[in-house]
Amino acid sequence: MPGRARSPLGTITRGTTNPNRLRRCDRWLAGPQGHRLRRAGPDPVVVDLGYGASPVTALELHDRLARVRADVQVVGIEIDPARVEVAKPLERDGLRFVVGGFELPVPEPPVFVRAFNVLRQYAESEVPAAWHAVQERLAPDGLLVDGTCDEIGRLASWVAVDRAGPRSLTLSYRLAGLASPGVVAERLPKALIHRNVPGEPVHAFLEALDTAWTRSAHQGSFGARQRFLATAAALRDDGWPLLGDERRWRLGELTVDWAAVAPAEGSVGPRH
């Protein structure tokens, strides 16, 4: 006798989204993380988890990653069946939509699972279980990207989580008009947003980021990009374990090792 179908794991989110909102994360997946797709087997699976009321971000994800692997298979997963029904007519070769949640109802372990503005609507205490559910399903070289961004994608942050645990925090900015990089505090992922208080490593990192930005003000006469480059170089020189190089910094993107910003219970910040 067949068993009862498993209910999707998770809760329905507000579902707000906009075209091009997740371009910063997509650029990071196709860029410094593109090697994971390139060395995957045939028809690598990528999941857009909790894509929202509009399927536009899943279509954009497929377009961008297909430039890295033409055979990429993007699956948009939504816990709300009505949202999936809206998306179904837009299915095409390499792109489909299914009902589901953190249990990831896909046939093969995914290389990437992008979950943006999903866990932000959960309690912090629910984050570890959600991460664990996805980690169990990842490909050996796979990544969960748990992120948050503003409504039009000018400001974003995300945690990269592999099968062993979180690896890095990335901050990404539209540099034109940026007053202070610490503004990202309001868009930190759920695992960190309530940790931006004195005594927590992420608070120390954001303070150091703003301090370096202030000290690099003289570079502003050459443009916001030059000021951001000087800010990132100052952070690195001060001992913060930044990943990547000037090519990413020029895009307004900064990635730091997770150990430097993780909640205080299990992490140690950089030694100055």
Features:
single chain, 272 residues, alpha/beta, Rossmann fold, 2 domains, nine-stranded mixed β-sheet, 9 helices, 9 strands, globular, disordered C terminus
Quick structural overview:
This is Class I SAM-dependent methyltransferase. This protein is of the alpha/beta class and 272 residues long. The chain has 9 helices and 9 strands.
Biggest β-sheet: strands ordered side by side in the sheet:
3-2-1-4-5-6-7-9-8
% residues in beta strands: 15-25%
Summed up, the helix count is 9
Q: Which fold name is given in CATH as the topology of the largest domain?
A: Rossmann fold
Q: Major sheet: size, sense and barrel closure?
A: 9 strands, mixed
- Total number of beta strands: 9
Distance between the termini: 63 Å
Total domains:
2
Q: What oligomeric state do these chains adopt? A: single chain
Q: Which regions have little confidence, pLDDT < 50, spanning 5+ residues?
A: 266-272
Structural class: alpha/beta
- Which value, in Å, is the CA radius of gyration? 19 Å
What is the N-to-C succession of helices and strands?
HHEHEHEEHEEEHHHEHE
CATH architecture of the largest domain: 3-Layer(aba) Sandwich
The percent range for helix content is 25-40%
